[in-house]
Records
---
Amino acid sequence: MTTPLQFEQWSHAMQSRIEHVLTTTMPADTETPITLHQAMRYAVLGGGKRVRALLAYAAGEFCGATLAHIDLSAAAVELIHAFSLVHDDMPCMDDDDLRRGKPSTHKQFGDATALLAGDALQSLAFELIASNQLSIEASQKVNILYCLAFATGSRGMAGGQSIDLESTGIKLSQPQLAQMHALKTGALMHAAAMMGAYTAPNADTQKYQAVDTFAKAIGLAFQVVDDILDAEADTATLGKTAGKDAEQDKSTYVTLLGLDTAKSLAQSLYQQALAPLEAYAQEADMLRSLASFITQRQF
């Protein structure tokens, strides 16, 4: 079993790795159009826990992929995540002025540039996967592209955001809340893990299925913990505006279930994530440790 210190060392190494990959694959902030490229880099670089990239690396290694092959899938999912945050923070969406401890992209660069930056980040994500830089089989690329596109669209992240906007002031049932977050948050986290897995040559079907089940459970657990932290932590700790959902009268797992029951649900989902990994030994340890990190994080 991986120790906490080993996981910490691995996660820091992967966070540094993905930061380098993103820094070198994004357009330089001196390249025309300069302001747009500055906004893109501002939205992506120098912040965040990179949980989605960590999922890609852990799942990819579990299935037998090399880090070099996983890099662009990890970068692509982080670009999609960043694009979603840029758009979510805008006045027409969640209207938030703070992200990752600094002004949101639209506050720093204006609404129009932020909108374009989000659009460009989304395009760049697919460009990276389709490019010759990713030297894997064409069938693997198609699987990765489909996975990412599905998770980003109306049956994934965009659809979840639409449901979220329509649900302001409406008390959702637990199944309705789970469906919304399975789309808004869970779909991209699931995609991150599957994209990492798909970069592996000749991975067996059972490992793909294990990653699939693991990622669905841990994606929902991530959102439950987010709701708990939103209720317990302050803005300085979170790096974003605390209590925003409650202020906007949106349903959360805490408002629906209460704090203690929400914490119990997070623990249950953690156990569900671990279940498909029971058949595997050390090769699944980083996935196990990542599940623990996601469900037990304090910030």
---
Amino acid sequence: MTDTDNPHNFDWTSSQLRRAIEAAGVALWSWNVDADTIVMDDRGYELWQVSSKQALTFEDLSERIHPADRDRVRAAFSATRAVVGPYEIDFRIVLGTDVRWISARGQGSDTGIVDRSMTGIFLDVTGRKQAEEGHELLAGEMSHRVKNLLAIASGLTQITSRSSTSVEEMTKQLTQRLAALGRAHDLVRPLPDGQGNAALLGDLFTVLLAPYDDSGAFAGRIRVAVPRMGVGEGAATGLALVIHELATNSLKYGCLSCESGTLDVSGALAGKHVEITWMERGGPDTVPPAGHQGYGSKLLERTMTGQLGGSIAYDWSEGGLVVTLVVDIKRLAG
């Protein structure tokens, strides 16, 4: 039985095919391999932001490919004439300040080539790539947080054992600290819509740092004195991440890792910003990290500059680490 004998066969027309292609956001292209000329449909010219009135070569389009992907794409397209079967390659193009992800798909080798022209499609896959990057970032953050929580639990056990005189007392204190850590961890998550300000700035610091303060002989070694101001839902998550990361590092390497260490958190208004000083004293000698930034440092930098519209600076002084956080007041309240 032939296709025409099949009553369920759909009789595609050129207009129907065109509507289906447009609905899928697909751009068609044809490349004459001898003359090195490329022609596309209207969607293709729009996608690459080039004029349909000028002759195009592969090199013309290559100039719009992201420099980091250009050589890889050139090599891949050159190889398509020798590779039998379908091919697909994803790459970035730069359009002014905008970066888009393109997926080029076609049929490889000269088999079946018509008029020395190869054909294929371009597909804008920017949304998918951004989603993939978001998932990778989330997975990295989750892995980093889990490792930090394990390190925190170990550190809290050690500082609790120093101020406990019995197993029962240690159990009680450690349970209280882990419960406080749970409450602090809740502040790292966004609040449901409609709940207004997440917390006062001072309360945010106090709650997040409470698990790290000894309740025995060394109680009160963490002091917080910042301006009375509200922290909005949007900023609470980012600022909580920053505090949590700094406290974790201090517990591992800084003043909170030893009995004699103290931590002072102070703040002051400075025009359109609030400056918060994180000052560690009495801990081990501070040494600037060598080599590239770790994941935690990159997370702090990205949160402070991107989400909170400010900056973070480190002073590895002889007396102890001093961190200066500058936060945009409007971002903080938002």
---
Amino acid sequence: MKKITILLAISLFVMAGCKKKDTAVIAGDQKMTIRTQEVHVEEVDQTYEYTAIVEANAVNNIAPLTGGRIDKIYVEVGDRVNKGKVLVQMNENSLKQSKVQLDNLKASFKRVDELYKVGGVSKSDWDAMKTQLDVAQTTYDNLLENTQLLSPISGVVTQRNYDSGDLFGGLPVVQVQQITPVKMNINISETLFKQVKVGTPVTVKVDAYGDEEFKGKISLIYPTMDGATHTFPVEVQLANTDSRVRPGMYARVTINFGTEKHVVVPDEAIFRQQGSGNRYVYVYKDGKVSFNQVEIGRHLDRAYELISGNVHDGDMVATTGLARLKDGLEVNVEKQ
């Protein structure tokens, strides 16, 4: 029994010694080992992408000013029409009556005018007859314009709401859209206001054509700012001479404002603080890391440009263990 007690005591002593030794090893090696990468200033394209819906450059709803019967519609949806083409023929009864009245007044005025020249009628009678003639002429011109409905633009017919013989009921008889060119409206940050110029080239991609690029330009800059979003509207125009891009398509508009020199850091060096949108980079120097908040810009393959932050050309930044680092922590750097 005595021997067992002695052996037990020896075992406990050995175990205690081993535990102290293990604790000492852990306590003596507090430094993390991290990997770092040197960063540099690079020329970065200042490209911005905006989403938009393609719109027709102009939309005209063709309809008469007054009601009546539609005698003939000469176009179908999808037809291409030139400016000035007759699209719709309305009933001519009112126009014919107006023409008879106008011709009678012209004849009467001619007689009055001849008498006035020889003193046969007064100036007031001449003025009264001239006024009647002018009113009749205006009425006839309006009826003529609203009897034959012409296309005010060159474009494509996108709506037809009646058939020949229908009574006009308020909806446009046909709609014509000008799709050469087309336009898109985008909103640009006010920080870029001084760089945006009419005529600035843009590239446009639409989902229907994948990665194919179409060339366009900024055609209009609106003079007002949105106080809530701090953006201003800009109109982009695409020549679309082949009419491949159609109104309603989803588009991505890219504008390049040149290049700027910015520090570029690898993806794995960017640390996002949990619960916020803030980004940070750990800079390694003299055996320690420092915690630096940064503003990131464009994503460049496997790196980000830094818009602001205390990170400079030639700095070494941590690329591993970011979640366990803290400001001022001493670390070891893994040899490459």
